[in-house]
Amino acid sequence: MIPRLLLALGLAWLLAACSGQATPTSNPNATPAPTPRPLIQLPFGNSGTATPSPEATETRRPSPTPGPVFTEYKVTYGDTLGGISAQFNMSIEELMEVNGLTDPHSLQIGQVLKIPTFIEREGPAREILPDSEVVYGPAYKDFDVAKFLEKYPNSYLANYSVYVERRDMTGPEIVQLVAERFSVGPRALLALIELQGGWVTSSSLTGAQIAYPVGAHVNAREDLYRELFWAANQINAGYYGKITGRFGILEFTDRERARVAWDLNPGSAGIQYVLAKTATWEDWQPLVSERGYRATYEKLFGDPAQYAVDQRLPKDLKQPTLRLPLEDGKQWFFTGGPHAGWVDGSPWAAVDFAPADQAGSCWQSTYWAVAAAPGVVTSSENGRVVLDLDGDGFQGTGWALLYMHMGDEGRVEVGTRVKTNDPIGNPSCQGGDSQTSHVHFARLYNGQWIAASDPAIPLVLSGWVLSGDSQEYNGAMTRGSDKRSAENQRLEGVNDVIGDGGK
Could you tell me whether strands 399-404 and 384-388 are parallel, antiparallel, or unpaired per DSSP bridges? Predict the structure, then answer.
């Protein structure tokens, strides 16, 4: 077991396609929730008219229960049950009972433990934004960041530029890029940097406002791109944590904690979460009041209800037929089970496949990642390709597929309409910290990341059904009597798979 643990520690960042980001938290089964209030179906203002949604499932929100709120702890190298229990002032027996452990020596690196926490304070249940404003989904189909900023031609954001990822990028381009990559609503991001730094409407800012546009005073992130990158990840952590029920605690800069109101909608939970990371408990109160973030949003965009659409998943939602995104007849290896779609705030939406011709190397593979279904390419940049399956040219409506780490040479261009099995790109390490060439593959629906092992909508590729467990990157793929297990090595008969159109 020990060599496997050490290998997992050393290669978790290398073989898994995290797009250069940190490891996510776990995604336990959701608790059934009470019926939420429906979101308002109103016109999009200047963005057209909202399309009626199919009958939707209930949003997965946990029911109110007395007792402790559970937070999570991810096991790292050198951890023991004794050390973890002492850190959280628990007995080893209590920690084992809460997590269903029978062997005190069975910890694995990356394993997520539940930690019971008793907290009396509770955040407000007041809605800040509807869910559809926090996700880069249907409400944003006709929204253009650069066009919106024409209202403020002298603002700091409109005139800002910085060198990012091998080129100069403007302020509007950075907001748009972060919104697309994290699938977080750009209006939500613009309101945040206006609230914390006046970037949208002001032309003259203080040094602190320029360095920390979202209010997170960390010296390693002193520009708009890094700050928005961090903020979008926090918003996702709050949003998806509320949906799955794994997120129940707000943590503030003064180490105070508060419960998240059980009936708060996920979009507002995402905003509360990111604001809590920038403020003390006392300073957070006005930020989440009607005079804080909400008022700033309304100053820029008006009543958010005008953009609200039902962000819940249809009851009868099915994944379209998808083939393995791998070139036919070639040997590949299933190197990463379900893990974060984009940084650790998103659900475990992604799986990884490595080509046989590049073992432990970042040279661009000669193997092709291929279209798992027909669609149109909406993004192709820095290793990232997004394939829109409904063909309307917008990644936030219907199903969309993410391919990550596609090398520059030969990568499919934006606007290309592809058929199933058409080439997308060649695996490399482009766009992340990985040190071996591979394909990171994930799904979104209406802008929401869909977990690869979601029991209601499992990821199925050429008849292979993907599944995961409580540890990130672990998992299996099964087709009939055939089974492959995710491994960070290349083991024939264990995790090898031949690309094919499948069943």
Answer: antiparallel
